[in-house]
Fold this sequence. Notes:
451 residues, Helix Hairpins, five-stranded mixed sheet, 49% helix
Amino acid sequence: MKIRVRLTLQFFFVVATILFLTMYFVYKRFEDMTTMEYYNNLKTKAHMTAEMVLHNGDLEKIEDINPRKSNEGLPISDNVIIFNNKFEKVFSFNRNTTENIPFDVVDYSRQEHAHRQGDIYYYGLPYTANTGTYYYVVASSFFNSKELMDLRQIITIAIVIGLFVVGLAGFFYTREALSPLFSIVTQMDRLDMTTLTGRLKATRSKDEIEHLITSINNLLSKIQSSFTFQKMFISNVSHELKNPISVMLSQVDVVLAQSNRTVDEYRSTLVSLREDVREIADITENLLQMAKMKAEGFKLEVNSFQLDDAILECQSKLLRAHPDYTINFKINGRPDTQEDLTITGNEALLRLAFINLMDNCCKYSPDKKVDVTITSRDKGLLLTFKDNGYGIDADELEKVLQPFYRNTKATKVKGYGIGLSLIDAVMNVHKLNLKIESQPDAGSTFSIRFK
Length: 451
């Protein structure tokens, strides 16, 4: 069953139930008021009849007073009967009826009593005559209120019309209530699933539907980002790995084609192959780390370590691989204890980011130099990497963080466009911010603030 049909039926049954209960309450309330008024009339009738009949004295038997001839036209149920203190019938206003009182007069002789049998209403009233004699007066009458009959007809018609209106209103109400969902479904059907560039239009209603649209758009953005990264990853990885592999195969083919090479030539070829293999290993490691961090369900394992020790180890490792680099390291401020230089995070990933930052700064600087500084502050530590390189144009500051994107000013330097995107991924999983300040041909400064 569709949601619209189910909601319409639920709306119909809920409102119909409320309508029935309301009409029933109105009818019963009116019926109770009418019945109470009728009982009051019977009570008045009983009292007036007793006053009229007993004002001349006590009655000994039913023949003492003869009913008027006009009473012969009364319905057989309309009557006033008087009982003496021995509960003998001493008066009957309507002699044409031989009805029996449907309740025991003896049981209710000391109290007023209202009773109903079908459409005949009875009211018993204790009465004391002027002589002090005790009597019990019972007035009865047939009652079938025209007002109640008319009210039943009105209520029946109102319920029929009301149910029709409720059904019609429920149909349009659910259509209007579900129209935002229908709009979402329609927009989702029109989305281009190959590019995932479209987004749902916001309603600006600040309700649950707006929240749902925002959540769907956020999900689409994540899927698009993952989809784009996957496509870019596959296309660029195949290209970046293909070049060094092709170079390696070419070198091997050349060596194998000439059998009279010297030992030095073989050594030179092996050294070149080692560099190419190292490049492939570095590219593969960086790509695997980036893919791992961008994967769903990635859990960051953190520990505490000394920031200065990590920088020194990265400096030593990078200088062993590139002796021509210059890495200057210093600490500003005066930390009181070693704990003041302690940070929390994944040490392996952060070291990978630090060494990539140092490598990038040196690689893209003509003097192959980087200044690394730790500044101790009250609110934490500020780590900066400053070079004297080519700089980055303002319109490229965000692009350089994208995988495989290369700064247009540094295309002459060998690289793969992975370093900064990997660093940015490490910062994101640590909820840190990599701040880049750069001026073309004047160098760049990369800052990371640790709380």
